[in-house]
Design goal:
The complex is a heterodimer of chains A (264) and B (283). Chain A is α/β, with parallel strands linked by helices. Chain A contains 9 helices and 10 strands. Chain A folds into 2 domains: 181 residues, 3-Layer(aba) Sandwich (Rossmann fold); 68 residues. Helix content of chain A is 38%, strand content 25%. In chain A, strand 4 and strand 5 form a beta hairpin. Chain A is globular, with a radius of gyration of 19 Å. The longest helix of chain B has 33 residues. Chain B has 12 helices and no strands. Chain B has 2 domains: 48 residues; 201 residues, Orthogonal Bundle (MetI-like fold), CATH 1.10.3720.10. The termini of chain B are close together. Classes of the chains: A alpha/beta (264), B mainly alpha (283). At the A-B interface, helix 3 of A face helix 8 and helix 9 of B.
Chain lengths: 264, 283
């Protein structure tokens, strides 16, 4: 198996431009295999662009991308991507939505359902197999989406503000489910968020990006909080508050900058 | 309603008083009773007016005469042959029209080039009043089945086409992106994303399509044929037999209403995944 020192994602000097607009000016990022990395930054700093680079949907204008040491050409077969918005197929049941990727791979439907069933249980939706997305709450739909991404067994999981639309309590529940699943089979997980609390609760390491355009990584904070973490009690501990202040020390100035830019 | 627990009606129900279901029952009963009353008053006054010679029964045949005529028709098995022919024509033009229209809609929905090239032609063809093609089709395809189906197809095809096109274009881009991220092939996208999206549009237009398919069949029969409900009406009209025309109309309406019922149950089966629209009247 992969040792702890194996790098799942290596970005070296990556820059992204859209025409003459420079979204990301310089990013060096190393993600270890099995590491849970949170990326925080002000709105519009190119966080999502980073994920598109890692999936291979977007080519960098400069720099190199390597996945498990191999340069990335074309699409990344090792990654699974969970989007911010609701993306379930409304005409398929929860069970069929979970097994969707398997069906796309050519697996027979009956077999895909058999594989999907335990995943639905893992995200706490036993008994909801035949519900359609419109019959599920926002949080339940997110759980189906989570199972849909993870069932494919991606070695690198990418999540782009997946829980930003949920209320605080539902979000905490999602954090607990996500951490449990991640603990089970440690994959690399890159989690994009603008919520510091969420970042610290989940991550092994928080990377802070500067305000765009031309954003870059301005610092990182390791999160040495022991695992498994108690999601609901964590936020009030002294260590947590200390880490929060440390990350905010990096991020706060950038947020101010992006506010100022938005005003002009 | 199939899913009372999620429909807006269902959400309100627990708050309503215990007497609510009975109240809605009696309301339903009242509606039905009023409907029956209207029909009864209408038919009776028609009958009376005819018998008192206020209206000429030659042009407005008595309801009893119409019923008698229908009974006469159904006393032989011949009428079932006519119904069967019209049904066959309807089903064929419906099926061919839906399949061809859907295929065309998907093609134009997915290929911007084809859409740009063909859009004006589609518009021109759709602008032709289809009924006027009837005589041409009778000339081309003869008095048999083919001319009836051809006319029905030209009507149904466009309904299916426009709805499919809409369905393909209205696919939620996020859903599409997610399916692509799950590595769906082009064929899988078509089967699991585009087609179901279009299907919801097609299914909601089924009722219109069925009505149009019947219309195509009957009009073509009326223009020239040897069997079918349109043929019966045309024959009766040919001998100034108003009773026959009215009886034919009654038969035709019953036919369409029956098909409509079938489509209704088909629609609710195919669209179980869709949220119930708020304030949908209880059918």
């Amino acid at each position: 198996m992969d040792g702890p020192s194996v790098l799942s994602v290596t970005l070296s000097g990556v820059a992204v431009r859209f025409g003459r607009f420079t979204a990301v000016s310089w990013v060096d990022l190393h993600v270890r295999s099995g590491e849970l990395l949170a990326v925080v930054g002000p709105t519009g700093c190119g966080k999502s662009t980073l994920l598109n680079i890692i999936t291979g949907l977007q080519r960098p204008a400069a720099g190199t991308v390597a996945i498990f040491g191999k340069p990335l050409t074309g699409l990344n077969d090792d990654s699974g991507y969970m989007l911010q918005q609701d993306a379930l197929l409304p005409w398929k049941t929860a069970l069929d939505n979970v097994g969707l990727g398997l069906i796309f791979q050519g697996m027979p439907v009956a077999q895909a359902r058999e594989r999907a069933l335990p995943w639905l249980r893992k995200v706490g939706l036993e008994g909801f197999e035949s519900r359609y997305p419109h019959q599920l709450s926002g949080g339940q739909r997110k759980r189906v989406a989570m199972a849909q991404t993870l069932i494919m067994g991606p070695k690198i999981v990418l999540m782009d503000e997946p829980f930003s639309a949920l209320d605080v309590h539902t979000r905490r529940l999602m954090h607990r489910i996500l951490l449990d699943l991640w603990q089970e089979e440690r994959r690399s997980l890159i989690f994009i968020t603008h919520d510091l609390e969420e970042a610290i609760t989940l991550a092994d390491r928080v990377v802070v990006m500067s305000a765009g355009p031309g954003s870059r990584i301005i610092g990182e904070v390791p999160i040495p909080l022991p695992r498994p973490r108690n999601v609901s009690a964590l936020a009030t501990t002294d260590e947590f508050l200390h880490l929060y202040r440390e990350v905010w020390g990096l991020l706060g100035a950038e947020v101010e900058k992006s506010y100022a830019a938005a005003r002009h | 309603m199939p899913q009372p627990d999620t429909s807006p009606m269902g959400m309100i129900a627990p708050e309503a008083s215990a007497g609510a279901p009975r109240a809605s029952w009696s309301r339903k009963g009242k509606v039905r009773a009023t409907q029956v009353g209207i029909v009864a008053v209408f038919l009776v006054s028609w009958e009376v007016a005819g018998r008192l010679a206020w209206i000429d029964p030659f042009f407005f045949p008595l309801p009893t005469a119409i019923v008698e005529r229908l009974a006469e028709w159904f006393s032989t098995s011949e009428i079932w042959g006519d119904i069967g022919i019209t049904l066959l024509e309807t089903v064929l033009s419906f099926a061919i029209g839906i399949v061809a229209g859907t295929a065309l809609g998907i093609w134009l929905g997915l290929s911007a080039f084809a859409a740009d090239v063909l859009q004006p032609f589609v518009k021109v063809f759709n602008a032709i009043p289809r009924i006027l093609l009837g005589p041409i089709f009778v000339l081309w395809f003869g008095l048999g089945l083919a001319s009836k189906v051809a006319l029905g197809v030209t009507i149904v095809l466009f309904i299916a086409f426009f709805n499919t096109l809409q369905g393909v274009r209205e696919v939620n881009p996020v859903v599409l992106a997610n399916a692509r991220l799950l590595k769906a092939s082009r064929l899988a996208l078509l089967r699991h994303v585009y087609l179901p999206s279009a299907a919801s549009w097609i299914v909601s237009s089924l009722r219109v399509s069925v009505g149009m398919a019947v219309m195509g069949a009957v009009v073509a029969e009326y223009l020239g044929s040897s069997a079918g409900l349109g043929h019966i009406i045309a024959q009766a009209e040919g001998v100034m037999d108003a009773t026959g025309v009215f009886a034919g109309l009654v038969l035709l309406s019953t036919f369409v209403v029956t098909l409509d019922r079938l489509v209704d149950s088909l629609e609710s089966r195919l669209l179980v995944w869709r949220p119930m629209p708020a304030g949908e009247p209880d059918a």
